[in-house]
Amino acid sequence: MFKNALKIILVLCLLIVGFAAQAEAQTTTSRENQTTVSPEKQALIQELLNVTNAKKNAEDISNLAIAQVEAVTPNLLADALSKRAGLQGDELRQKTNEHLAQVLKRFKQLYPQKINYTQVVNQVTYPLYARFFTEEELKDLVNFYKSSTGKKTIAVIPQLAAESVQQSNELLLPKTLELMQQVVNEDVRQSRYAAK
Fold first, then answer.
1. DSSP secondary structure letters along 95-106
2. Is 53 left (phi over 0), alpha (psi -120 to 50) or beta?
3. Which of 4, 24, 77, 161 is the most buried (most CB within 10 A)?
4. Which residues, 6 or more positions from 82, have their beta carbon under 8 angstroms from its beta carbon?
5. 158-166 — which CB contacts under 8 Å span 24+ positions?
6. Bigger pLDDT: 44 or 190?
7. DSSP conformation class of 147
8. Which pTM does this prediction carry?
């Protein structure tokens, strides 16, 4: 029972982290597409990535997503276990929090080792920007982000992302908890029927 609930939480973690990476990168493409980008466009795209702090922003968004998961997961897991197994009390919550803290700590240790942001950003960004923007448009973007308004945009993006995630969580968390409870209840019913 604990393992099933933990699997659900880990899938939720991966989805949230995946969403954060997708928000920065937009979508994934194959490595072969990168070779079709002209050197001129590659240089402009690299300048655009540098001026917009794309790597740091992607890492910040990912760290924010992991922090959000850490904040909500202990109570989510404890509630799921409490309702599923009929367990109650501070001891359940404490053990759940301790175990989950170990899992999340290990996840946070391994995540940067397994995910190379520079490689992901390069694989995704170069082909996409090359496809959607001409060289002139890329020059315009670079010039914009070098302007005072562009610099302000770059400066507020992390805060915008943080507040967006926070407000989205306020709206989505109750629905997510309800959905998680539904899934856990269905799993309990299916387990009972399978045991008979």
1. HHHHHHHHHHHH
2. left
3. 77
4. 88, 92
5. 158/57, 158/60, 158/61, 161/23, 161/57, 161/60, 161/61, 161/64, 162/64, 165/64, 165/65, 165/68, 166/68
6. 44
7. S
8. 0.53
